[in-house]
Amino acid sequence: MFDAVKKLLSTNYGVDPEKITLDTHLSNELGFSGESMEDFIMDVEDYFEIEVDEDDFSKLETISDLVDYIEEY
């Protein structure tokens, strides 16, 4: 799952895959916040065919949080 998230970030957002770890912070290190976070989450939903509850956005702080969330669904 981690590799799939890494691929999504590198392909759609130009993030260097070498800089993505499970501890990478979505807002602090990758700059996702507000509208950009919503766009990213929509891409995650499409890519992984899941639905992320808006109330859960704030819980997704790191790549690890996101991977865990995806694996639950």
Describe what this molecule looks like in 3D:
It contains three helices and no strands. The chain has one domain: Non-ribosomal Peptide Synthetase Peptidyl Carrier Protein, Chain A. The model has no long low-confidence stretch (mean pLDDT 95). With 73 residues, the protein is mainly alpha-helical. The radius of gyration is 11 Å and the shape is globular.
Give the topology, please:
Elements: H1 2-13, H2 34-48, H3 63-72
Short structural summary:
The chain has 73 residues and is mostly helical.
Highlighted features:
51% helix; mainly alpha; 73 residues; 0% strand; single chain; globular; Non-ribosomal Peptide Synthetase Peptidyl Carrier Protein, Chain A
Instruction: Determine the structural class based on helices, strands and strand pairing.
Output: mainly alpha
Gap between N and C termini: 12 Å
Give the overall shape, derived from the CA principal axes. Answer: globular
CATH architecture: Orthogonal Bundle
CATH class: Mainly Alpha
**How many DSSP E strands?**
0
The low-confidence parts are none
Main sheet specs: none
CATH topology: Non-ribosomal Peptide Synthetase Peptidyl Carrier Protein, Chain A
Number of domains: 1
